[in-house]
Structures are given as C-alpha cells and as structure tokens.
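Milestone M4 deliverable, item 7.
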Amino acid sequence: MASFHVIAGASETLEHTRIRKIGVSDLFDALRRGVDDFMVKPSHIVFLCLIYPLVGVVLAAWTSGANALPLLFPLVSGFALLGPFAAIGLYEISRRREAGLDASWSHAFEVKNSPALPSIAAVGIMLFAIFIAWLLTAQAF
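Output delivered:
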C-alpha cells in the first residue's frame, strides 16, 4: 500500500522523524533562549506580542453585553488555542536569529516562503475549526 500524507499526497516521499526526549533542563534552556531573543530585539517581540492581547481585550469588550457574556470563557480559552498559530511570526524571528540571518520585524512573516507552509496552514485550519466547534458548543448550552 502506498504511503499517503493529507497535504503532500502520494507522490511525495515521507521521512520518519526521530523523536527525542526532553527534560526540565531543556525547558529552562528554551526559556533562556526566548529571553535572549527578547533582549536582542525587544521592539519586534513587543510589537508582535501586543497584537494578540489587544484582540483578547476586544473579545472581552465585545462579550461584555448581557447576551454574549456566557461566551467570554469559551472565547478566551479558544483564542488561546489559536496561540501557537498566531505566534508563527515569533518563531520565524527566532529561527532567523539562530541561523545568523537578519531578524527584523519585516521578516516575521517570511514563513510564507517555508516548505512547511502547507502543514502550518493545515494545523491552523484544524485549530480554527476546533475553535468554531468550541464556540458553537458553548453557545448551544
């Protein structure tokens, strides 16, 4: 039976990924590197990190009416579900900095040139579908 990937199709060859184990020290290393990224380019990270919380505040203000207030928790928690997809600009800046490339804010969305874009889009669509299902379920109750 041929190997098939939902995005790549049957004509692409799939490689099996080696799974590495991580420990607590790896988590602290990731946090340290994140702080290093922030210290080197604080303006870019703050710019990207302000948009996400502002949308959260807009969602909270939007639901402050009596009819939508029961949707506040599902909106906020579902909005957090979309966080990894919303942070792709931050990931790209960190990747470029680690590779020794220019890490200016204009490069934050160069992920659109990545060969992984179809997979990233598939995960984003899946997360958005879960978010919508989450809201519809919350609204039904």
